[in-house]
C-alpha cells in the first residue's frame, strides 16, 4: 500500500470500529450514567486519542511493518540456509511477544491479582520464549513441508495433558495469554514474514504453508504457562 492509498482506508476502518462503541456509550450516558460534563469531556478526549493512536498504528503496520516483513521473509528463503531462517524466526517470535503491549498488561494484572506470587517478568519471559519456540517450529514446518495438522493435533494433545497436570488458575491464565499473544505485533510481523518465506521457497504455497503460524502462537502460552504452573506448584509443595 502507498501512503495515499492506505491512510483513508485505515481511518475509515478505525471509525467503523470506534463509532458504534461510542454511540453505545453515549446512549448509556443519556439514559443511565449521566456523567458530569467534566468527566464526559475527559472520556471523549480519551476516545479521540485512542482513535488517533489506532490510525497511526494501523497506518504504520500497512505502510511499514507488513511490506518489510514479507520482503524479509522472501530474502531469507532465497539467500540463507535453514538454520538462519529458524534462528531468525525464534528471535522475531521472542521480540514480537516481548514488545506486545497487551502481553505486558496481562502480566501486570496476573502479578497484581496473585499478590506478587507470579511475577510479571517471569510470566513475560515465559510467554516470549514459548512463542519463540512455537514460531521456530512453524518456520520448520514451512521449510520442510510438514503437514500442519500433525503439528497442531500433537500440540493440543500435549496441551490437554498439561492442563490436567497444572492447577486450574494457571490453565485460565494460559488460555487468556494465548489470546493476548496473538496481537497486532504477531499478526503484522510474524504471519507476514511466514507468508514471505513460503513465497520464496521453491515449490512453496503461501496459502497452504504461510498460514497457521498464528495458531501456533496461540498454542504456545497454553503449553508454557501450564508448564510454569506445574513447576511452581511442585516448588510450593517441596517448600
Would you mind describing this structure in some detail?
The protein has ten helices and no strands. Helix 5 packs across helix 10. It has two domains: 1-65; 80-238, no CATH class. It has helices spanning 3-33, 37-79, 82-98, 101-113, 120-144, 148-165, 168-181, 184-200, 206-210, 213-238. Helix content is 87%, strand content 0%. With 239 residues, it is mainly α. The mean pLDDT is 84. The relative contact order is 0.12.
Number of domains: 2
Number of strands: 0
* SSE arrangement, N to C: HHHHHHHHHH
Give the percentage of residues in beta strands.
under 5%
Assign a percent range to the helix content.
over 70%
Which structural class fits the helix and strand makeup? mainly alpha
The whole-number mean of residue pLDDT values reads 84
Instruction: Determine the number of helices (DSSP H or I, runs of at least 4 residues).
Output: 10
The largest pleated sheet is described as: none
Radius of gyration: 21 Å
The low-confidence runs, each spanning 5 or more residues with pLDDT under 50, are none
N- to C-terminal distance: 57 Å
Shape by Cα distribution: flat
